[in-house]
């Protein structure tokens, strides 16, 4: 039986410190007595003491652990380590498997995407944006909802950090910002924790770097001139356009 989730789901649905600790537990052989049950996995994970841990195969994040966090219904490093074990089936993690981008950063590399890569990137962005959805549920679902926003932004962060710098990719990022802005302004997204707005501000910083590396990127900022956005994130980019025209 294979779990319904994969390593990307684990990586992007887990905060960076917890994921890194879980990777260390898995790689150091601390996930012991692994057992596959009916729709679930169990193991004894060695931490400050041995912890009995179980997770469901159908959905990442559902499980139990004897540790303090697990007893508080919080996803802990032991459950994440067991999830990694279930997905990897004893195989070694690659460097890419272990890397989890903490936020969007400029690659610093000039270049354009091929037509095929551009299509794939747009598809990946659309898939990630689906995690940034409206909130209209009861308060008990708030933390689950926030986790969805975190995961969407984490997935987007990895995608945009891998992009080469060019007018083509700059246009892609500007369109992403406008798309997220619409979700915040009229799409019912509750960004009380600043997850999405923080991601957008980081992308604006990326685009400022783009402008220094490839001046043609500035052409894509003109689309933002005269726009009214939800919190004025576009202002640094519009200022770059204005300075170029003065």
Question: How are the SSEs ordered, and which strands pair?
Answer:
Layout: H1 7-12, H2 16-27, E1 31-36, E2 40-46, E3 50-56, E4 63-65, H3 68-71, H4 77-88, H5 95-98, H6 115-129, H7 142-161, H8 167-186, H9 195-213, H10 235-245
Antiparallel strand pairs: 1-2, 2-3, 3-4
What does this protein structure show overall?
This protein has helices at 7-12, 16-27, 68-71, 77-88, 95-98, 115-129, 142-161, 167-186, 195-213, 235-245, and strands at 31-36, 40-46, 50-56, 63-65. The chain has a four-stranded antiparallel beta sheet with strand order 1-2-3-4. It contains ten helices and four strands. It folds into two domains: 7-98, no CATH class; 115-245, no CATH class. The protein is elongated. The chain is of the alpha+beta class. The longest helix is centred in the middle third of the chain and has 20 residues, at 142-161. Helix 2 (16-27) crosses helix 4, helix 6 packs antiparallel against helix 7 (142-161) and helix 7 runs parallel beside helix 9.
- Give the fraction of residues assigned to helices: 40-55%
Radius of gyration: 21 Å
Helical segment count: 10
**Contiguous runs where pLDDT drops below 50 for at least 5 residues:** none
Q: How do the strands line up in the largest sheet? A: 1-2-3-4
Q: Structurally, how many domains make up the residues?
A: 2
Please tally the β strands and state the result.
Answer: 4
- Structure classification: alpha+beta
SS strand fraction:
5-15%
How far apart the termini lie comes to 64 Å
Order of helices and strands: HHEEEEHHHHHHHH
Q: What is the 3D shape?
A: elongated
The averaged pLDDT comes out at 94
Largest sheet: 4 strands, antiparallel
């Amino acid at each position: 039986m294979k779990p319904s989730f994969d390593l990307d789901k684990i990586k992007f649905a887990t905060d960076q410190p917890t994921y890194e600790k879980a990777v260390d537990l898995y790689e150091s052989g601390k996930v012991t007595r692994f057992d596959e049950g009916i729709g679930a996995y169990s193991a004894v994970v060695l931490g400050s003491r041995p912890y009995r841990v179980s997770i469901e195969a159908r959905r990442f994040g559902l499980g139990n652990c004897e540790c303090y966090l697990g007893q508080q219904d919080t996803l802990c490093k032991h459950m994440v380590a067991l999830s990694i074990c279930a997905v990897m089936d004893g195989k070694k993690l690659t460097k890419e498997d272990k890397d989890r981008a903490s936020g969007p950063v400029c690659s610093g590399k000039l270049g354009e995407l091929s037509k095929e890569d551009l299509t794939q990137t747009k598809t990946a962005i659309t898939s990630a944006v689906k995690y940034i959805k409206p909130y209209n549920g009861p308060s008990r679902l708030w933390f689950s909802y926030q986790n969805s926003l975190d995961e969407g932004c984490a997935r987007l962060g990895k995608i945009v950090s891998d992009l080469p710098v060019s007018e083509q990719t700059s246009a892609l990022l500007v369109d992403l910002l406008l798309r997220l802005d619409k979700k915040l302004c009229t799409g019912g997204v509750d960004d009380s924790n600043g997850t999405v707005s923080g991601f957008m501000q980081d992308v604006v910083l990326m685009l400022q770097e783009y402008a220094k590396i490839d001046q043609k990127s500035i052409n894509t900022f003109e689309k933002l001139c005269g726009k009214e956005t939800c919190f004025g994130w576009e202002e640094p980019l519009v200022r770059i356009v204005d300075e170029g025209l003065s």
